[in-house]
Specification:
The complex is a heterodimer of chains A (about 260) and B (about 240).
Chain A lengths: L3 E2 L1 E7 L8 E4 L7 E2 L4 H14 L22 E2 L2 E2 L20 E6 L8 E3 L2 E2 L2 H9 L20 H11 L6 H5 L6 H12 L8 H14 L10 H5 L7 H15 L8
Helix pairs in contact in A: 2-6, 3-5, 5-6, 5-8, 6-8
Chain B lengths: L10 H26 L6 H13 L1 H31 L16 H4 L1 H19 L15 H9 L2 H28 L8 H27 L6 H18 L1
Helix pairs in contact in B: 1-3, 1-7, 1-8, 5-7, 7-8
The chains are: A alpha+beta (about 260), B mainly alpha (about 240).
Chain lengths: ~260, ~240
């Protein structure tokens, strides 16, 4: 395998939220890319060349570049975070691409994720959903005794599976309905599965689902595209669990609120 | 009260209503087909079955009201959700988003739905109210003959076969999706659930496609059987007079 590749690179450029935007061809800037570079490093190289020419660099989100922060993300050839399974954009390496491959890079698209510039989208609607969840009743004083609350291994494992969600928004980008159900259900499940999350369980479920709907995300139609695109492989089983909790919250008085 | 989030107001609640009404309708089409397979037992048994259904007013009207309510709720909430989903991504991807795992059945739900609604309207007009004799006179006392004579017309059979293939697709995704939407999910039963939905959808589609094919190939409704059914109805009417 050659150590460098050339790309036929097309990147979405949009100067601001109101700009129409269009794909720009950066094939001449994307030559001789190291196959050891990550996708973001490839964009760094292209940006350096753009800056040298006096052009504005491509704006994209990134932070840890270790696949754990959830900041990066773009739709690469029609797939959020690119074609490699369970991989964030920063962990996608250029060795995954053929020499002279056509590569289209586009921002995550959803009405609730307005584009700020180029590949950067505003995902603060996720923060609104999290804030709607409110508090959990945990002691914040000295550290609690280990194993003070017994939690079955399978339950803690499942809660950890849900807690793997890094909130990148790939599920929304992949969903035909731009629904955030996978994110929402993962955030609900990692608290709702554990004993510490029980007191506020149904109230939290109602409020976060309401916030999700109010933010303008679509509804789930069970295509499971989100699960396939999720860099953390979060399962749509959590969506079923959330649906069940919503029904219990709506049809019973389990959260202490009469309907 | 945080009752803002009642069932009809959240996307999940609306979807649950679509799911529950869908399951009711799914149950009906299974019963509908199973009953119609009495066709294989001949004209006398089939017409007796039809007469028994019509004679049982509580069952007949209970079913009709349940079905009508289910269909209305199923369509109304689906339309609300579909409208919302269509507007959730106002700016489409310029390089089309790739489908990774979704099925044709799932993607075509918004298409198969309205087509099935149109077919159901036609089907009701065809065999129930008012009853259209496409190939000969419609006789409300002889459903066996109504079915056989019309299914002998190739394009009538073709419409029913096509519609039931759509129904199979709709039920295949709908059956699994409904369980997911009401939270009926457990790792132990997931594989079973998907197989059950696919199996029942296949049963309904194949069964309903079989009937027009069987008529076309004279497995159901030979000329003798058709004549027999007419003689029986004539005899009954003579008796009543």
């Amino acid at each position: 395998m050659s150590e460098t590749i050339d790309l036929k690179l097309h990147v979405w450029r949009q100067s601001g939220p109101k700009d129409k935007g269009a794909f720009a061809d950066y094939s001449k800037h994307a030559k001789g890319i190291s196959t050891h570079a990550s996708f973001l490093e490839m964009l760094d190289v292209v940006n350096e060349r753009l800056v040298a020419e006096g052009e504005a660099p491509i704006a994209f989100d990134h932070d840890c570049r270790e696949g754990i922060c959830g900041m990066c993300g773009a739709v690469i050839n029609g797939v959020p975070h690119g074609h490699r399974k369970q991989t964030t954009t920063c962990q996608l390496h250029m060795r995954e691409f053929q020499n002279n491959a056509e590569v289209y890079v586009e921002p995550f698209r959803a009405g609730s994720f307005p584009i700020i510039q180029d590949l950067v989208v505003d995902r603060s609607s996720f923060d609104t959903i999290i804030q709607a969840g409110g508090y959990v009743s945990v002691r914040t004083g000295s550290a609690p005794d280990a194993n003070e609350i017994p939690i079955p291994k399978q339950i803690s494992d499942r809660a950890m599976d849900a807690a793997q969600c890094i909130g990148c928004g790939a599920c929304v980008a992949a969903c035909p309905n731009a629904s955030a159900s996978l994110f929402l259900s993962a955030k609900l499940a990692h608290l709702n599965l554990l004993p510490q999350g029980q007191p506020e369980r149904y109230r939290r479920t109602r409020q976060m689902v309401l916030a999700h709907d109010q933010a303008g995300f679509g509804g789930c139609t069970n295509h499971r595209e989100c699960e396939a695109a999720c860099p953390k492989g979060i399962s749509t089983d959590f969506i079923a669990r959330m649906n069940r909790d919503v029904l219990v919250a709506s049809l019973t008085d389990k959260d202490g609120e009469l309907i | 009260m945080q009752g803002v989030l009642t069932l009809t107001r959240s996307t999940i609640g609306q979807k649950a209503i679509v799911a529950v009404t869908g399951v009711i309708l799914f149950g009906f089409v299974i019963g509908h087909l199973t009953g119609n397979l009495i066709l294989l037992a001949g004209p006398e048994a089939y017409n007796a079955y039809a007469a028994a259904l019509k004679g049982n007013a509580p069952l007949l009207w209970g079913t009709r009201i349940t079905l009508l309510t289910s269909v209305i709720l199923h369509i109304v909430f689906t339309m609300q959700l579909a409208k919302r989903n269509a507007s959730a991504r106002p700016n489409a991807y310029q390089k089309p988003r790739k489908d990774l795992v979704t099925t044709y059945a799932a993607r075509s739900m918004v298409l198969t739905g309205p087509l099935l609604a149109a077919f159901i309207a036609f089907h009701l007009a065809h065999f129930t109210v008012p009853g259209i004799g496409i190939n000969g006179v419609f006789d409300p006392h002889n459903p066996y003959a109504n079915l056989v004579q019309d299914f002998r017309v190739w394009y009538v059979s073709a419409i029913y076969i096509f519609a039931n293939i759509l129904l199979g697709l709709h039920l295949w995704h709908g059956g699994w999706s409904a369980a997911q939407s009401i939270g009926a999910q457990h790792p132990k039963y997931d594989a079973l659930k998907m197989r059950l939905a696919a199996g029942l959808a296949l049963f309904v589609a194949c069964g309903n496609v079989f009937i027009p094919i069987a008529v076309q190939t004279h497995i159901i409704g030979s000329s003798e059987q058709l004549a027999e059914s007419r003689a029986l109805v004539a005899a009954e009417q003579a008796e009543e007079e």
